[in-house]
Every structure is written in structure tokens, then in C-alpha cells.
Design brief:
Strand content: under 5%
Number of helices: 5
Distance between the termini: 45 Å
Shape: elongated
Largest sheet: none
Helix content: over 70%
Mean pLDDT: 85
Amino acid sequence: MSEQFDATATDENPSGWLRTFFWRHWNGELRLPISYWLVGLVLQFALLFAVLFFFLFLIGITGIRLPLVFLMVVVLGAVAVWSNVGVWRSATVYMRSSPRLWGMLAKAGVVCNAVQIVLELGSLLVRT
């Protein structure tokens, strides 16, 4: 698995590298440290915060609450699934060729993150 992006995708389509990055993460093709720390922690937090802020802004402007909160939960859930599945798959690939400890710790982190997100999104729906 090469860590280099396809140069032709970048030349032909400026958003090609981004699409490639998202697919490579989803398939577990990124190295575990990049997948866990960059995507699983930094990028997931930034995306979740941006989506949450955007929907809370829409709720404040429109006054429509229930449908937007439901849509927000769906979008936040999709971001979390994409992030966690990519980290899980990357940890699986990592464990095939390296010491299993870091892969197992990454998977434990994914499980903790998934439980936390389910509880928080569930409480968000209950409060609505």
C-alpha cells in the first residue's frame, strides 16, 4: 500500500486528492497513526463541531427544531461511522504486520468513542 496519492487524480480533478483521502481512510489504507490521530481525533472532532455549529445555527435562524435535530444526529452519526470504521480497518491492517498492541489499543479507542457518541446522540434526541 503506497502512501502517495494518485497525481493524475489531482491534476484532472482538484478535489480528487480529497476523495482519495476519504476512500483510503474508509478502506483502512492510511497508516494507523494518521488514521487514529489525524482522522479519528483531530478531523472527527473538527467535523463534528462544524456540523453541530451549522445545525444549531440553522435551528436558531429557522426555529425548526425536531426535523433539524434529527438530521443533525444522522449527519453526526455518519461522520462518526466513517471515522471509526476507517480507524478500525487501519488497526486491523496494522496488526497483520506489526506488534498487535497498538492495533488493539486503537480498536479499544474506537469502541470507547462509538459508545460515547451513541450515548451523546441519544441524549440529544431525548432532550428534543
